[in-house]
Design goal:
This protein has 768 residues and is α+β, with helices and mostly antiparallel strands. The protein is 35% helix and 9% strand. The chain has a seven-stranded mixed beta sheet. A two-stranded antiparallel ribbon has the order 1-2.
Length: 768
């Protein structure tokens, strides 16, 4: 946004690839240009050509770039004084003249890290005028064709030629109307904009600036009045979107039983009540007329966004079609793990299903789901469940970008789905089975050919509660670990009334000294050696006799480890996968961080230490020095300080260290806002905040506070999370990582109370 009092000028639109700045930010390493395809305009003034070279064609750490950058900062500061402003607008790729800073040092750092936004060779936001900079231009307010925000050539003709053969027959008439609108001038005599191009550019402005539909309609009405009377501009947001109807994708609105028993689709599409629970399909109750379509709104709706048309749309774009082959054609194959294609499971699929692996364009998807509250009221019980799909064929810096994540299912609240999520996954599973068994014919616009596209679900990644809903495994109780299954070791804490997962010694070497030291751990000698973990075929034998839960029946808690047969087992390849369901590492890290902070700072309601766990330790005959001591004349008992107990001064030093931390913009949230100095605790931490604390800040904050053995163990735990989050991992060091984290967890068992070791702490041992 421009500073107050300055004229507003439309920003320069960057090329499409610059939106994903994670790849372009590394250009300074080898000094190469961000876009090697840029060519100089022979008619451009010499100072503009020189400026283009140093702004975009040389490394941002070179001496020449830094020298010219200082000249720009001087011009910007002079303009700041002339305008009487106290801020300078930042023209980097991320800010794009949309943010201002008081200190020019911040501008300089942004331009070194991110580089200049594309096309900003005329510093119009920093004191230069377009007329002075490009005197040869006939229009002083128009940038050159390459850098213009509004391009004169929309290339509609080439676009229509590329996709004409791929348009479904039912959309052919609308597609032809779209072609007519692309050729129709906005008004008689207008040579610059067609009806379609004007609407597209206005809709882009709406999306980029977050305008509401109401404000956009008001703008269209005003522009319609300002243009000549014979103009073709639409006068509402509805008609603007309707104009581009053939470019939209199909959305299916499927009615569902309010008790999550079934979906009204296929053979059940015309039913008016659930055939399982006999509840009406509609909010108003049973319909008065069975043959009428006007029976009121449905009680519950599933929005399904079919994935097959979306996959076709990806290959209809030549650039995206090329990126979907990146994992096979351009990925660096150096025996390191930097992409999912480097994993064992990827190679297993290629070897097990050669016909699928031989076609590099076949898609591998990852599924994620979780509840969300779209209304922002955290006290509300409303829970809407989206199901998202991520494409693993793309480069690692693109597959998690918003534009490449597909929303496949959206279930309205107000209650969460739980184990009945399988009912709502049915349309998606049907499409996945089709994509695996027969596939679909797709046109590859990059290779200019048709091919048979197939796709598979590579894995799911969720938090632990959603893991249980999708996999069908019971993630609560004494066998809560889905990896250890029946070999899960847990101890029931009678006073705390919860299980403690402290059996990490069984993963040590057979002759390790810790196995025999029962007084330092849980009071027992560890003799068990873990057997090999179950593979997909073994688990399938365990669950194949169970039924897919397609109706909601309350039979109490499940009797076994598996509470249902997940609908994913209907996929033919599911039992052949090494890893089917994954727990989000950031979710584990957040829970471990909160447990650690609650214990060290003794936060009320979150601490893992107290009278109950001390009594449990007494029953386990461990650490007798921590047994509660009676206080004469008082009912309460005195809890002797443990090795992890911090005094008030130590807590103050710890919190002050975090309170004074300053990090670069965008590195994390403001840590100062998370620290409550009055109560000496941390509050309101998000997942990324916990990640930054665990990997960077906690080892620094505990220096000189805790005993060496405690501090070193916590530091090793933080170091493990730091290493496992690396962008590139050498598979040869994974076994070493696993040995280190098991030894670290065993040391934590020696120092921390048993209540600290919930299932989330135990899952750290399975991250590798």
């Amino acid at each position: 946004m421009a500073a107050r009092g300055e004229p507003i000028q439309p920003p320069v639109q960057p090329p499409p690839h610059d939106s994903d700045d994670s790849s372009s930010d590394d250009s300074s390493i080898d000094g190469s240009s961000d876009d090697d395809s840029d060519e100089e305009d022979p008619d451009a003034p010499m100072d503009r050509i020189d400026r283009t070279k140093w702004m975009y064609d040389i490394g941002r750490t070179s001496t020449d770039y830094l020298k010219r950058l200082d000249e720009f900062i001087t011009i910007a500061e002079t303009d700041q004084l002339n305008k009487g402003s106290n801020v300078i607008i930042c023209p980097c790729k991320k800010c794009m003249n949309g943010k201002s800073f008081k200190d020019s040092t911040d501008i300089r750092n942004h331009l070194i890290i991110n580089g200049f936004m594309r096309g900003y060779t005329c510093w119009s936001y920093h004191g230069e005028s377009l007329t002075e900079h490009n005197p040869g231009s006939s229009d002083s307010n128009q940038l050159n064709d390459e850098d213009s925000y509004i391009s004169d050539n929309d290339n509609f003709e080439a676009m229509f030629e590329d996709i004409e053969d791929n348009v479904d027959e039912k959309y052919h008439e609308k597609f032809e109307q779209l072609r007519v609108d692309s050729e129709k001038p906005l008004y008689n005599g207008c040579m610059k904009f067609s009806k379609l191009s004007a609407v597209i550019k206005l809709l882009n402005l709406k999306a980029n600036n977050g305008w509401s539909d109401t404000s956009f309609t008001s703008l269209l009405e005003l522009l319609h009045k300002m243009l000549p009377e014979d103009n073709e501009l639409t006068v509402s947001t509805y008609y603007a979107k309707k104009l581009m109807c053939p470019m939209g994708l199909e959305i299916q609105r499927i009615h569902a039983c309010p008790n999550d028993c079934m979906l009204y689709r296929n053979e059940n599409e015309n039913l008016h009540e659930c055939k399982v629970c006999s509840i009406s399909r509609y909010k108003c109750g049973k319909p008065t007329d069975e043959d009428s379509d006007e029976n009121g709104p449905p009680a519950r709706v599933l929005w399904y966004f079919p994935i097959i048309p979306r996959l076709k749309r990806l290959f209809a774009n030549a650039k995206t079609a090329k990126l979907l082959c990146w994992h096979a054609e351009e990925r660096k194959k150096d025996e390191k793990i930097s992409h999912v294609a480097d994993s064992v499971q990827w190679r297993t699929i290629d070897n097990e299903f050669e016909d699928f692996g031989n076609e590099i364009r076949n898609i591998r998807l990852r599924l994620s789901s979780d509840g969300m509250n779209p209304f922002g009221d955290l006290s509300s019980g409303h829970s809407t469940w989206p199901v998202l799909l991520c494409i693993y064929n793309l480069p690692s810096w693109l597959c998690m970008k918003r534009k490449h994540i597909m929303l496949s299912l959206l279930t309205q609240g107000p209650k969460q789905l739980g184990n009945d999520i399988d009912v709502y996954l049915t349309p998606l599973i049907d499409d996945l089975k089709l994509l695996w068994d027969t596939g679909v014919q797709v046109y590859d616009s990059y290779k200019k050919e048709y091919f048979h596209l197939r796709a598979m679900l590579f894995c799911t990644i969720n938090n632990f509660s959603a893991y249980g809903n999708l996999s069908g495994y019971t993630t609560k109780g004494e066998k809560a670990c889905p990896i250890c299954e029946k070999n899960t070791h847990s101890i029931w804490l009678k006073n705390c009334r919860k299980p403690a997962f402290m059996g990490h010694r069984r993963e040590l070497a057979v002759n390790h000294a810790y196995r025999s030291k029962k007084d330092l751990f849980d009071g027992t000698v560890e003799k068990i050696i873990l057997p090999p973990r179950s593979d997909g075929k073994t688990i399938f034998k365990m669950v194949k006799k169970l039924k897919v839960v397609l109706e909601k029946i309350d039979n109490g808690p499940p009797k076994g480890m598996w509470k249902k047969k997940s609908i994913f087992w209907e996929l033919p390849y599911w039992k052949h996968l090494c890893v089917r369901h994954c727990v989000d590492v950031m979710h584990i890290e957040k829970n471990v961080c909160e447990s650690l902070m609650g214990l060290l700072l003794n936060i009320p309601g979150k601490t893992k230490d107290g009278i109950k766990v001390r009594k449990d330790m007494e029953l386990m005959n461990i650490r007798p020095e921590l047994t509660p001591k009676p206080i004469p004349g008082r009912i309460t008992k005195f809890l002797p300080p443990a090795c992890y107990t911090m005094s008030k001064d130590e807590k103050t030093k710890f919190c002050e260290c975090l309170y004074d931390v300053k990090v670069p913009s965008g590195y994390s949230s403001n840590i100062r806002k998370l620290v409550l100095m009055k109560d000496l605790k941390l509050s309101g931490m998000k997942s990324h905040d916990c990640h930054v604390l665990m990997t960077q800040m906690i080892p620094i904050a505990i220096r000189g506070i805790l005993p060496d053995r405690i501090r070193h163990t916590i530091t090793k735990l933080c170091l493990f999370f730091n290493m496992i989050h690396s962008k590139v991992i050498d598979p040869e060091v994974l076994n070493e990582y696993q040995r280190d984290i098991i030894l670290t967890l065993c040391k934590l068992e020696m120092y921390f109370p048993p209540s600290f070791f919930d299932v989330m702490v135990h899952l750290v041992s399975h991250i590798v």
